[in-house]
Amino acid sequence: MHNSSRAPIVRTPLARLYLLVVAVLGLLGGCSGTRIVDALTPSESYTETHDIAYGDGPRRMLDVYRPVSLAPGAKAPVVVFIYGGSWREGSKTDYRFVAEALTARGIVAVIADYRVYPEVSYPGFVEDTAAAVAWTFREIDRYGGDPKRIFVAGHSAGAYNAAMVAFDSRWLQPYGLRPEQLRGFVGLAGPYNFLPIVDEDVKEVFHWPGTPPDSQPINHVSKDSIPSLLIAARKDTFVYPIKNTEPMAAKLRELGVDVTMDIHDRVNHITLVGSIARPLRFLAPVDREFTDFVLSH
Predict the structure, then answer these.
(1) Has residue 16 got a pLDDT over 70?
(2) CA dist 221 to 54, 253, 254, Å?
(3) What pLDDT, on a 0 to 100 scale, did the predictor assign at position 33?
(4) What are the tens digits of pLDDT across the range 221-260?
(5) pTM of the prediction?
(6) Do strands 76-82 and 108-112 pair parallel, antiparallel, or not at all (unpaired)?
(7) Among 53, 108, 158, 283, which is most exposed with the fewest C-beta within 10 angstroms?
(8) Nearest to 60 by CA among 151, 132, 148, 9
(9) Which CATH architecture does the domain made up of 45-296 adopt?
(10) Contact 63, 91 (CB under 8 A)
(11) CB–CB of 67/108 below 8 Å?
């Protein structure tokens, strides 16, 4: 566990423009593009403590970003953010742009790695997410976070992991915690209702055709579920909002749960999360919706 500073930010306007074009093209083409986005994102809003172990092994580590604006002794709301990658890949170091958006508005950010396939299959990655959230409840006070104002959030596969922890009590129970102790859930392009599985890569991860129905977040919502913000891209051809986000929002609403759903037209599955980054916010106001939800709850 140690402190780290960001790589130098590209200062030349022409270089910034070039990287912006490359980042947008990479995101539109289905590549992550997040490292390029990070290079374009300022780092003045936070101090970072990285590679904190919340379990055994190199994939069970997290980074904490503390807002520089946070006064000594003050406590800020906290977001535990889980990235996507089809439960097969991803790195917390590629999502500093999410931390920047949060810390710029006075929110502590926790970004966690988790084990992926083939090291684990369902439910291993959900167990890791629960462990990272439990660590946050225990330890975040040391980093200026308020343990009574913890939110869990994620994009794509990470939104699935976060949703399972937020709505299914099985995963936090071993730590003496309940989903209701979370202040809210934010899901970006999350798969909440994806049976039957048609993606061949996902079939292996979820033991298809033996995938249990209780692996679906939509089957765990109740009238006691926590407030939720569900954001999706209308042009998403990977996680269809009409099958996932819209039914999830409808069920929460039917049960009387505080839920907001926003579907954006100018982004796809990847650029939805990319639009959180400061240079790409012209694509969609996801950063503002995300942070406003946290600060208003």
Answers:
(1) no
(2) 27, 10, 10
(3) 57
(4) 999 999 999 999 999 999 999 999 999 999 999 999 999 9
(5) 0.89
(6) parallel
(7) 53
(8) 132
(9) 3-Layer(aba) Sandwich (3.40)
(10) no
(11) yes
